[in-house]
Amino acid sequence: MKKEEKVIIPLTRHEWPDERQARHKKQRTFILTAISLVLFFSLGFYAHDVLIPQTENITQTQDEFTRLKAVYSVLVDEWYFGKDLNDLDQQLINDAIVGMVESTGDIHTQYMTSEEVQLFTQSIDRGFVGIGVSYFDSNGTYVVENVFIDSPAYKAGVMSGDIIYRVDGVDASSVDSDALVDMVRGEEGTIVQIEFLRGDTTVTLDITRGTINNTSYGKMLDEDSAFLEIYQFGTSTALEVSQYLEQFKSAGATNILIDLRDNGGGYLTSLEDLGSLFLPEGDILIQQNTRDGETLVSASKGNMILDFDKIVILINENTASAAEVFTAAIQENREALVVGVTSY
Q: Please, what is the angle between helix 268-275 and helix 237-251, to 10°?
């Protein structure tokens, strides 16, 4: 009988994705730790001679940054998937900063890149190039709702209630709202011809496009009461509001309704300038407590244009930040009536 031959078949255990990920993580940790230790010991001799005169805190800080730099260098130079990413070095730095900020758990502290800051600033100032009106769609008919003060449309004589009939010869009713916006907006300094229906007449206006900062809007409600809506606390808001207040003063307004619903806030300087338009000099607008225990007080500069008898402020759950502080300052100093729900 022929002797059976033994055949040895190597078996490899199947590795599930979560096990593979854990193993890779362990390997990465070991590699990075080893690299950190090598760097630590090799740089340690240099540090012994150079850093002895420095304080312990400085030495500790530099050691921490050495560790961070070591990991950063490994990722930039050796991380396999790094080859698939553009601007890897900048992305790693930004992600590291974001990670540090988010790890604080403070939802009100945020890091932004220069591009994000620019977009954020534009959103606060609500800036764009156009003619300076808002309108609503009434079954395909576009009706001007607001004409913002000192805008190209305001200077050209556009009025609330005007119907946008034609834009550069194109029938407005033949396009949708987004297309109409594109037709009206354009490069600063260029002219757009718009035909408006005003009652039974047609008004044709050549309007020169300009930069618009429409962070507020105001009008008279009746012979005694004015309405002021503030959308954001931007760089131009105080100037815009002061122009509306001058109009209210000329119209003989004694009461004002201020709408801060859905106002997410804005700049501290805007808060200070706006508050100074409504409160006597010296009235406290905001107090800030610093980390070292110092209290910083911002008070009204006393730039009141009109001393209203009654002030009513509208707020909602989206009224936040500078809009909340403004509301509190007016309420506490002038006993204004605040109407709405709990703010942000």
A: 20
The separation between CA 256 and the C-alpha centre of its own chain, rounded to angstroms, equals 28
Q: Which amino acid is at 203?
A: V
Tokens of 226: 């004015």
Q: Which helix (H) or strand (E) holds 61?
A: helix 56-78
Residues 6 or more apart in contact with residue 280 via CB below 8 angstroms:
300, 302, 304, 333
The partner residues of 297 in beta bridges, in order of sequence, read 287
Query: Residue 335 pLDDT > 90, yes or no?
Result: no
Give the global pTM. Answer: 0.71
DSSP 97-120: HHHHHHTT--TT-----HHHHHHH
CA 38, 43, 45, 48 torsion-angle sign: negative
Query: 78, exposed or middle or buried, with CB in 10 Å at 0-12, 13-18, 19+?
Result: exposed
Residue 258's closest CA among 336, 329, 317, 325?
Answer: 336
CB 222 within 8 A of CB 258: no
